[in-house]
Each structure stands twice: as C-alpha cells, then as structure tokens.
C-alpha cells in the first residue's frame, strides 16, 4: 500500500508540475514555519538525520521536498501541493516530511 501511495503521489506531483508551471503567481511570501508554504498542517522534521530517524521509527518513507524560491517550477509545484487537500492528507498520514531549500 505504501509503494502504491508513493507512486500515486509522485505521478500526481509530476502531472501537476507540468500543467501548472506557467501559472505562477509573482507574489512571494516569507515562510513562517518549517513548511515554507508547502502545508502548515503537515508535521515537518527539521533535519535529514531527524527524518531518517522518524522514518525508521514510524515505518514510513521519508519524502524530501527540495526546492528553490526563485524556481518557477518549484513555485508551481508548491502551490499545487499546498492547495490540494488530498495531497496534504496523504503527506501527513503516509510520509515523514522534510522541506529543504
């Protein structure tokens, strides 16, 4: 089931990124939490080491979101990720989440 969830989320994120890459808002907000705008309701770990520890402890895969503030594709993916409740719920319940810039 985890492999299916991981594959489904990956395919969804790829599809959304390719479709929304040109629909990027120019407005930038300063991130206030570890989510950096990717989802404040998600529990985020602070470091890669903490992520590995939590992943092993919880038997969940570690999902690393690596992005740049100036990347239009990253911003399109962030908007799609943050606005989709199903993705937010899947990320919170099925993964240990780490956000890197």
From TrEMBL:
Extract one GO cellular component term from the record. Answer: endoplasmic reticulum
Keywords from UniProt, A to Z, are: Signal
Q: Which domain of life is it from?
A: Eukaryota
Q: Span of the secretion signal?
A: 1-23
Keyword check for Signal: yes
Record flagged with keyword Glycoprotein? no
Q: Which GO terms describe its molecular function?
A: dystroglycan binding
Q: What is this protein called?
A: AGR3 protein
């Amino acid at each position: 089931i985890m492999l299916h969830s991981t594959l489904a989320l990956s395919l969804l994120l790829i599809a959304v990124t390719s479709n929304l890459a040109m629909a990027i808002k120019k407005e930038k907000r300063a991130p206030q939490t570890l989510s950096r705008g990717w989802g404040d309701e998600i529990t985020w770990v602070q470091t890669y080491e903490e992520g590995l520890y939590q992943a092993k402890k919880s038997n969940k895969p570690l999902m690393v979101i690596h992005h740049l503030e100036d990347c239009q594709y990253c911003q399109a993916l962030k908007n799609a990720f943050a606005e989709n409740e199903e993705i937010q719920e899947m990320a919170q319940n099925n993964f240990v989440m780490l956000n890197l810039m």
